[in-house]
Write a structure and sequence with these properties.
Layout (H helix, E strand, L loop, with lengths): L2 H25 L5 H27 L7 H25 L7 H22 L1 H5 L1
Length: 127
């Protein structure tokens, strides 16, 4: 599978899971207000970045050497960021806490690579 196919499949699966996790948090878990807020943040970040993975193949330069790293950064970032929050809420084990900022850093790196891809191909995009 190439990076674009991975992006689309990952985006679809992450979106599917975000809807499921949102429903689980809203209807099947008894959560304190702070846990509900954390769960909601995880679902929001997962859904927004799932959508991003679905559109990135259409807006970023797939010829760029950084393209596969951008896709990987977003996918790994979603898993680490949202996944660690889900695990923190479900298990109440702080062991998962350090993964959350690592996921955030991966997501930030993905955005940086996306910006770089768009900037370096601005002539073909905006003209």
């Amino acid at each position: 599978m190439n990076a674009s196919q991975i992006a689309v499949v990952s985006g679809g699966m992450m979106g599917f899971l975000a809807v499921g996790m949102g429903a689980m948090g809203a209807h099947h878990l008894t959560l304190a207000e702070s846990e509900r807020a954390a769960w909601s943040t995880a679902v929001d970040y997962q859904m927004w970045h799932a959508l991003l993975l679905l559109i990135v193949p259409f807006i970023a330069s797939r010829a760029s050497r950084t393209y596969p790293f951008m896709i990987a950064s977003f996918a790994v970032g979603i898993v680490l960021f949202s996944g660690s929050i889900y695990l923190l809420v479900l298990t109440e084990n702080s062991l998962w806490g350090p993964l959350t900022p690592l996921g955030g850093i991966c997501i930030l790196f993905g955005w940086l690579l996306l910006s770089w891809s768009l900037w370096s191909n601005r002539e073909s995009i905006f003209h």
